[in-house]
Amino acid sequence: MVDTMALLPPFVRSSRTPRATRPLVQHPAVALPADDEVLLDAPDDRLAPALVAAGQGTWQAASTLLAATRASAAWEYRDRYVVRLASFAAARPEWFEDWRAAAPHDPDMLLVAAQRAVARAWESPARAELLRELNPLITAAARGDDRDPVPWRLALDHAHGSNAGHKYFEELWEAAIRRAPHHYGCHAAALRYLADSWHGSHHECFDFAETAAQDAPADSLVQALPTRAAFAYLTDGCGPDVPLERLSAAADRAIALSARFPAADPWPAELRNKLAYVLSRLNRWHDALEQMRLIGPYATSFPWEQLSEDPLGSFLELREEIRLRSTSGHPPGGHGGRAHLGDH
Question: For residues 185 and 153, what is the distance between their CA atoms, to the nearest angstrom?
């Protein structure tokens, strides 16, 4: 095994959650929003005004929003908002360039700048070379607030894309979890790195994801990390089979997390979109329909952009299949042996 096994010692306890067998029950029809009411990557009510203001050419609302996340240590929100603002700045740079000129040392501006640069480099065929040139930008963002784990998530993505060695990645990982032991973005970045380093070794990726979830609070987004490992396995098609029990345990853990959030809420929408896909691949159609009900009108690019060039179309297509299968009396997937997986 490669040296990345050293990433595992903080998370060595494997999660094994007992689950009861579910009886087959009748499910009433569930009303879902019409196709033309479904939105892709809709912002929440805090991010939306900042994006509107940026679209109008002003940066102050974005600055205020990110400063508030930093002041309140709302790192999960900060991470998500930085990604969205950087994406908007890539498409509409004028407001961001005004921000950079007005506040060149603003830690929030520096973080958005680093996120934008890394995302742009990732899309290039010369990714590794371009990413290596961005070290000073990421370092400047990390110096903005020593408590902030988001620059370290960005550093993990940067190290992954620039083919950094295992020892260097482990140092970044330790710095990240020291700041926020249960930050989802850092865990997802580490899982992506491990998945590439251990291509096909999905059991090791599940070990990492399950144990991180077991150690995290019940309301932490890290509870959904095993479903990310499940999604990677279900869409990879290589390596030894992962037992259905393990895949279903990942789904059950994410179902419990999803239930903690209100229905039709954009904040947990990505969790629910990914979970609905995993449940459909496990033939758990009624559970998948419940997640579609909770999703409401909020489709997200991930995971659908990993499956199709038309993420919204892929979401709507699978949603219709889930609706038809669950209301036609299709039995839910089993809970033993290995998965009989549907094709999507």
Answer: 6
User: What is the pLDDT at residue 309?
Assistant: 97
Domain ranges in the chain? 44-197, 223-344
Half-sphere exposure of 174 (CA within 13 A, CB side): 10
pLDDT beneath 50, residues of the chain: 1-27, 331-340
The confidence score (pLDDT) of residue 287 equals: 98
Give CA torsion, residues 66, 69, 70, 71, to 10 deg: 120
Kindly state the helix (H) or strand (E) to which residue 301 belongs, with its residue range: helix 301-304
Residue 255: how many CB atoms within 10 A of its CB? Answer: 20
Give the contacts of 145 (CB within 8 A, at least 6 positions apart): 70, 107
Dihedral angle sign, alpha carbons of residues 118, 126, 314, 24: negative
Report the DSSP pairing between strands 298-299 and 39-40: parallel
Q: Report the pLDDT value the prediction gives residue 5, as an integer from 0 to 100.
A: 38
For residues 94 and 114, give the distance between their C-alpha atoms in angstroms, rounded to a whole number: 16
Rounded distance, CA 63 to CA 234, Å? 39
Two structure tokens written together for 102: 């007005």
Distance CA 41, CA 298 (A): 7
Alpha-carbon gap, residue 98 to 198, rounded angstroms: 43
Identify which of 223, 186, 231, 181 has the alpha carbon closest to the alpha carbon of residue 205.
231
* CA 294 – CA 272 distance, rounded (Å): 8
What's the pLDDT at 341? 53
Spatial distance between the Cα atoms of 312 and 144, rounded to a whole number of angstroms: 36
Residue 155: closest CA among 99, 89, 125, 111: 111
What pLDDT was estimated at residue 3?
43
Q: Which pLDDT value is given to residue 342? A: 53
